[in-house]
């Protein structure tokens, strides 16, 4: 399931994870062709790897294929910790966006209060939008962030 609007900070993390998992363009081209049946050169010619991945992400977002892109990348590089982490973040964030996004205008004050209640030690100002709240929550260090995968 893809979110109607994937937050920019998550798109940036997807870009970083893909660049880490596929550090050369040829391996990225192969994954995109085999998993998504897309010729990478048709949608992203020229530029460095980060720019190429950016164009790929834009293309996949436009065709509602971000989840397939992440899944395909994991099929080709299943032990990459960055891809595994981004898959989890994508699932959680898109679920929250799908559920809470449409309610933003009517419940932003309640979301801000919930943020204040769950994060009382934060000294930053309270985020003004739903997407900013999600980004701030995603950036909070969790005890499990330091765990290493054993499989």
Describe what this molecule looks like in 3D:
With 151 residues, the chain is mainly α. It has one domain. Helices cover 66% and strands 0% of the residues. It has helices at 8-21, 25-36, 40-43, 49-62, 66-76, 81-100, 104-118, 130-139. α1 (8-21) packs across α4 (49-62) and α1 runs antiparallel to α6 (81-100). The radius of gyration is 17 Å and the shape is elongated. The model has no long low-confidence stretch (mean pLDDT 84).
Explain briefly what this protein structure is.
The chain has 151 residues and is mainly α. Helices cover 66% and strands 0% of the residues. It has one domain (8-146).
Any chance you could write out the topology, listing elements then pairs?
Layout: H1 8-21, H2 25-36, H3 40-43, H4 49-62, H5 66-76, H6 81-100, H7 104-118, H8 130-139
Largest sheet: none
Averaged pLDDT, please? Answer: 84
Task: Give the strand content.
Answer: under 5%
Q: Calculate Rg over CA atoms.
A: 17 Å
Notable traits:
about 150 residues, mainly alpha, 8 helices
